[in-house]
Design goal:
globular; mainly alpha; 504 residues
Length: 504
């Protein structure tokens, strides 16, 4: 093939915009891989240099995407969840330190300090940039009433519950965390104004998931734990890993939800590179999910994957052969790791399953005593000794510092109206995502099914999983923001001829 022919093909490639698309995908992958590589290969670095683990990939993104600040912010928010970084501003006297544990201060780590997450810092910068844009050039701010109203209701009743709290400082910490998550949700939902924006964010998130999955698989095989520059990868007993999300339950929620989004991406994206990325994320993420040993995570994943397949069978958007192949892949992975799955469901769990009903009875005692405003946000663990009754069980550490049920935790701490707002917040997001299934635009309809199933997977896991940690709670709000943004795109784009990469 002559040089002239190659040059002509290159010019066609550039002029059709394919070069820009490949560039964007490459940047998304590069950011994720840089984060993972720096974490994996920097054990021996002096501590003062380890901050580069965070600074280098973000700075690299800024340099490479300097002409599109919106994409810079989207990429940074997407990788902030697995990085799970925050800065402690104030520490409560009830902090989980050995001296306080000895004194019986039975509070939860992560609830005893006022912290500012990396995502919150980023969106504060983003809001400031909104303000400096000339009035005539500002894009209109959308409210997303279906999800924003219950979110604000949850915050409002959480603020009211502060007046019930034994420790106001712990309550204020939790309220600030809710406000922070709302700001991130609202910023992201307003930043996803085009299908291209949505594709970019999902691609970066999947790139970060791929790195997280590989890291967890390495942990699963080696049993390695580490903490570098505030980024910590943990294990939870023999044969269970939590990655950088802080625990096995949050890691399972993160992986299962993004695996479902990867499902949608495999068929929704017209780009081969994104299809390959999605397939890798689904396969490695499924194996890493098994490595978490989360029983509810595996059940929720199996249920929602089956639900996604049924939705696509009915809609007819995806060939039946492809859906059958997806189920076969899941079954093959299950057979390959049958021993690990079977052992997790049948081996001694040291009272983990038995403790769940005791947690629920203890929480119910608290709810019955304070049904309307709860005992105060962030005060559950502090007050549990006051609500032990003979039917709860033996008071032990494992059952009274937290509830492995997100809904009961919100109910006990902030009251009945707060839990109704929280359920409405999640339910509205699922409805918004699934309403996109009828969209004439293929990418929106397929992603709506995947995103709706992803949020549903998390909702199922909240019944018995520990969903109180900052990383996973922020991830839930980000998925709701995606659902709100996708629903807005579905309403704005009714033309079947609109290309996936075009703007609204």
């Amino acid at each position: 093939m002559s040089v002239l022919v190659l040059w002509k093909r290159y010019r066609i490639w550039v002029e059709t915009g394919l070069a820009q698309k490949v560039f964007e995908v490459g940047i998304a992958l590069l950011v994720g891989l840089m984060v993972g590589a720096l974490i994996v290969f920097s054990w021996g670095m002096p501590s003062k240099w380890q901050q580069l683990i965070v600074a280098i990939p973000i700075a690299l993104t800024l340099v490479l995407l300097i002409n599109d600040l919106n994409k810079i912010m989207l990429a940074a928010i997407a990788i902030s969840v697995p990085l799970n970084l925050d800065v402690a501003l104030v520490v409560s006297p009830y902090a989980r330190i050995p001296e306080n544990i000895v004194r019986g201060h039975r509070t939860l780590a992560g609830f005893t300090d006022l912290s500012l997450s990396l995502a919150a810092i980023l969106v504060i910068v983003g809001y400031a940039l909104w303000l400096v844009v000339p009035r005539g050039e500002r894009k209109p701010v959308r409210f997303f009433a279906g999800t924003s109203i219950p979110a604000l209701g949850l915050i409002f009743f959480s603020i009211l519950s502060v007046f019930q709290a034994r420790d106001w400082q712990l309550s204020s910490f939790r309220v600030v965390q809710l406000l922070e998550q709302f700001l991130v949700y609202f910023y992201l939902a307003n930043s996803l104004r085009t299908v291209q924006d949505m594709q970019f964010f999902v691609t970066v998130a999947l790139g970060a998931m791929l790195v997280e999955s590989v890291l967890m698989l390495v942990q699963w095989n080696t049993g390695t734990e580490f903490i570098i520059a505030g980024v910590q990868a943990v294990a939870d007993g023999p044969g269970r890993v939590g990655g950088t999300l802080g625990a096995t339950g949050p890691a399972a929620g993160y992986l299962s939800a993004l695996a479902l989004i990867a499902c949608a991406m495999m068929w929704a994206s017209p780009r081969r590179s994104q299809k390959i990325l999605a397939a890798l994320c689904f396969g490695l993420g499924t194996v890493a999910l098994i490595g978490t040993g989360s029983r509810i995570g595996l059940i929720a994943f199996a249920v929602t994957v089956l639900g996604y397949v049924l939705i696509e069978l009915v809609s007819g958007r995806v060939q039946r052969g492809s859906l059958v192949l997806l189920i076969l892949v899941v079954l093959i992975v299950g057979v390959m790791f049958y021993d690990a799955i079977y052992t997790r469901y049948t081996a001694e769990d040291y009272g983990s399953a038995e403790s769940r009903p005791m947690m629920y009875r203890l929480a119910w005692n608290m709810i019955r005593a304070h049904p309307w405003l709860g005992v105060g946000s962030g005060n559950y663990a502090l007050l549990t000794p006051d609500y032990f009754t003979s039917d709860v069980g033996t008071p032990e550490y494992v059952i009274d510092v937290q509830i492995h049920n997100r809904y009961l935790l919100v109910w006990a701490e902030s009251g009945s109206f707060a839990v109704l707002c929280y359920v409405s917040f999640l339910g509205s997001a699922i409805i918004k995502a699934w309403s996109c299934i009828k969209s004439k635009q293929r990418w929106i309809s397929l992603m709506g099914a995947g995103l709706g199933c992803a949020i549903l997977s998390l909702c199922i896991q909240m019944f018995t999983g520990s969903f109180h940690m900052r990383g996973i709670t922020l991830f839930v709000w980000l998925l709701v923001a995606l659902a709100a943004g996708l629903h807005n795109l579905g309403q704005a784009n009714s033309s079947p001829s609109l290309e996936p990469g075009s703007s609204t």
